Amino acid sequence: MSPDDWEHFIEEWMTYRSQEYFDYERLGGAGDQGRDVVGYVDDPVRLNNYLWDNFQCKHYAQPLTPSQIWVEIGKICYFSFKNDYPFPRKYYFIAPKGVGTKLSTYLKKPDELKLALYQHWDKYCKNGITETKAIVLDISLKAYIDKLDFSIFDKIATIKIILEHSKTQFHVTRFGTQLPKRPETPKISAKVGDNELTYVKKLLQAYDDHNNGEIDTVKDLINYPKYNNHLKRSREDFLHAETLRTFSRDTLPKDEFEKIQRQILNGVIDIVEDDHSNGFNKVKEVLREAKRLQLPTNLLSSCLTVNDRGGICHQLANNNEISWCEDEI
Predict the structure, then answer these.
(1) Taking the model in full, what pTM does it have?
(2) How far is it, in rounded angstroms, from Cα 306 to Cα 235?
(3) Is the dihedral of CA 175, 180, 306, 221 positive or negative?
């Protein structure tokens, strides 16, 4: 993993901690003023003295040493002194190999850390903070740093980050691991939900088209076991697909589930647009085709079921991308 990849990895990990923050962003690169990945506790646009945490990504083959971080601490002190941003609430060093013993000791003793910064300022900070001028530790800058709380500086163990990253949607693609077990699909509710109204209405019209009238509501199906059972299976399939959509959203990068939806739509659209004797026959033909399609390999392939395929057809109908009857209302 390169230094740039390491920053991207930490940015991905921040999605696990996103509820702790108003917003977060990756700033690493030229002109970042000592900030790599930032978590804003407050809105930085609305408040001048906003609270924020800095996650400083250092990528070395060995554990971090004090000589590798003096300039980073110097940048935070200097640019906050200039009011380019407030002094952070917390500042974490994050490195693949962690921090070495000497740096770890300093982080446990904030006063000694500050004193050591002063002692190493000329060697590491004076000409390292900016490329345009030397930053001298003059009376005003030192007086400012004297008042700063250096207990904000800390570290986060790599193993902790990896464990938390494993709960994000990026972990499977980042490390090529297996998907976690898919959650069980719950039982359908007795009443049709608001999120089901469109596709259920379309199915009722398809049943009505097949029966030559007399079916307007779900209650009308009590006299038609064939349609009633079909609706029950359709609602179960829809719930399967919705569960898979949520599972994909929580465990994989954006749009993996939507890729399957597109493939199924592309696979059945010609049948949808064919002439059929009635809407119910069209429904059955389309679902039959969806369940036997040879789909391209996808990150969700290992957990895609027959129920999901049928449910995706109903999702497409719910999105008005598929119609069963020409005169749908």
Answers:
(1) 0.65
(2) 14
(3) negative
